[in-house]
Every structure is written in structure tokens, then in C-alpha cells.
Amino acid sequence: MTRLPNALQPAWPLLKRLHRLASLAAGMVARPLSRLQGARALPRRATATVGATAALEPDAVTLHRLDVGEQIRRQPAQGTPAGHWVFDKARMFDVAPRYSLEIDRGIVVGDYGANVTPGGTLDYETSEYFGITRWREHPIFLRHRLPPVEHVEGTLVSLATRGGSGNYYHFLLDVLPRFGVFQETMPGRVADALYVPAGTGWQRDLLELVGLGDHHIVETQKHRAVRADQLVVPSLPNPKEVAPRSTVDWLRSRLVPHDVSDKPRRIYVTRGSQRNTRRIVQEEALMALLEDRGFVCIEPGGMSVRDQIDHYAAAEVVVAPHGAALTNLVFAGAGVKVLEIFPASYVNSCFWAITDSIPDSQYAYLVAGDTTPYGPGSPMNRIQADIDVDPAIIIDAVDRLIAS
């Protein structure tokens, strides 16, 4: 989700392009002058891979890598229109072996978790950012220098990454499981502190529930830079939002339901009524038809984390427009049935990927509107476009899913 006010959401594609260009231009000016900034200097260069980073500064950088990755080979997703290219593109993916990058005197910057070596190298592989195609477009270069650099003694494990500071999906799939990667790649190593988002109640609740509540937390901030004696950066556990089975299994094993006995078995997940939020425009009429079929409307944003876990664990059928609340599908029980609804201008396969890792699950998508202008290769960047579709079309898809 973008951080723009709702009224400005339609301008997001243009503003994102301008943001990339501004980062590129600012960096061209700032990098040659970086030596003048001393300890607060911006990175002067970057590497494309962690292997290149370790090779460039072998005295300061160590790579702890596992031997085996993960092959994802999924059956075609079912939905309307059939064979949508976004889902076909995500069917096959080779997940690289997991690793942790250890940087002596390394610096982590900002809430997006940009990782910099003592030699001034930005490790781009662990510092990726939304919608950019090369390291020179990274928003770290919108700064003229780093924030004042704080020091943390011992081993600081950075779980920070783009989107993780405020988005429920990215916190669950991209932030928390990185600690599991750290444990797997560096067994027996103790983290003296964690660099992790912890500014909201739900983030603190999740940290507590997965067993990280007792760790010393260095909270991510937009204007923060932290140097550690040893900065450890685990690999991203959810590359390209493909929800590897190892990541889903890690979350399911640590965030187990508590009480599902009094929860509804069929749920509809609302996104509210404000414009430019990916809401269902005719939701009131749709909800009347869904209630006839035993559905209960829930709004996860108003629930505790524990209540969200239990509601999704109890649900046998989930119907929802695309949104971060569907991240809770990671807690769904075996055999869950899911219908996800999209606007034609923004289709994303990330929740299909989660559902595919749930045993005996069934997933269907419904893309509303004319998909012709949004064929293969479309940027799919009208992220918050509302969904205006005849409720009867949604109900037909729901009835077919239930009967399947």
C-alpha cells in the first residue's frame, strides 16, 4: 500500500516514476561528495549480490549460506478470466538458498533496511526497494547524508525491509521469518539486539507471539542509522512475494490458533467505504446476498492479532477484495476455500501463493472490469483502484467455489 492520501491514490503511478528519477538524480550529486560527510557518508557504490559484497570486502563481510533452495511449481490458478497472466507468471520460481550476511561494523539505514559495509558499499540484494530497477534509484540517495549514526554493541540482527514498517503483509511475510533464517543459517549464534519495526501495537503483539518479545529491540525509523559491531542481515524469506513453503510453515508453527470454537465458518473481509482504497463499491448489496449464504462480515483492522489468527483459522470459506488482511490466510485450516476479488488494473498473486501452501485448499480469483488494457507486461500499479462490479457476478463465483 502507498502512503498517499486517498484522494491522491490515482496519481501513484506518475509519482512513483518521479520518485525514482529524483533518487537517481540526487545520487549523482551526492555520491561524489560523500567523502566530505565522514561517518555519515552515503554509500559510494553498490553490489548486485551478497556474494559480490563478500568478495569485495572479505575482511569485513562473511556470508553464511545454506546449500539447498526451494523449487516452486504450482498448478494454474482458477478464476475469471481464466489463465490470467499475473498468476501464470508466478507459477514457477526457484528460491535461492537462504543465507545471512554478516558485516563487521556494518550500518543499517532507515525503515527500509538499507545495509552498508564499512567500505561504503550498499548491498543491493538485501536492500531492495519497491518498483526500482537498479541500485542508483534507491531512496537512500534522496538523502544528502546519513542520519547521525548510533552504535550498538555486539550482534545486531536486522529484520527490516521495504514495507515492513507499516504493512501487515510485509511485516508477517518479509520481516518476522527473517529471524528464522538467522537461526537456520547461524545456529547457536545469539542476537544481542534486533533492528525491527515495533511502533504499533500489532507489531509488538506479533513479536511477542513468535517469541521475540524478550529481545532488545532497536526500533526502525525513517531517519535512523545504526552501526553494529556485527550487523547480521538474513536473506529475504519471501522473494517476489512467492510465499515459499518454508516461510509459510515457519509462521504457521509459531502463530497457532488459540480458540476457534465460537468463530464464523464463512467470512467476508471488508475494506471499508472510503474511496480509492480497493473497496467493493456495491458492498452493501453484496453483503445482503452473502448473509443469505451464512457469511459474516469482519474488519480485521479493528481486531487484535490473536482474534485475527483465530477467525482465519476457523474459516472454511473466505471472500475478500485484495488487501493486506488476507495475509491471515497463513493461519487458515486445511481445506479452506478462498475467493479473492481484484480491479482489472491491479492484480497480485501473493495471497494465492499463501493459499497454495495450505493443505487441500481451493483458491479462485475474480478480476472485475475490462482486462484488455492490462495485458501481459502491464505494470499493474493502480494499487488502490476501487472495484465496481455487479454483486451477482461475485455471488456466482462464490456459489461455484462453495459447490466445488
**Unreliable stretches covering 5 or more consecutive residues:** none
Principal-axis shape equals: globular
Helix count equals: 11
> Share of helix among residues?
25-40%
Number of strands: 18
SSE pattern: HEHEEEHEEEEEEHHEHEEHEHEHEEHEH
Structural class, from secondary structure content? Answer: alpha/beta
Number of domains in the coordinates? 2
Question: Could you characterize the architecture of this molecule?
Answer:
Helix 8 links the parallel strand 14 (266-269) and strand 15. The longest helix has 19 residues, at 12-30. This protein has helices at 12-30, 50-56, 85-89, 168-175, 177-185, 201-209, 245-254, 283-291, 305-314, 350-356, 391-403; strands spanning 45-47, 61-65, 70-73, 78-80, 92-95, 99-104, 107-109, 114-116, 121-123, 149-158, 193-196, 217-219, 225-234, 266-269, 296-298, 317-321, 337-343, 362-368. Strands 2, 6, 7, 8, 10, 11, 12 and 13 form an eight-stranded mixed β-sheet that branches. Strands 4-18-17-16-14-15 form a six-stranded parallel β-sheet, sandwiched between helices. A two-stranded parallel ribbon has the order 1-9. It is built from eleven helices and 18 strands. It folds into two domains: 29-68 and 99-240, no CATH class; 266-403, Rossmann fold. Helices cover 26% and strands 22% of the residues. The chain is an alpha/beta fold.
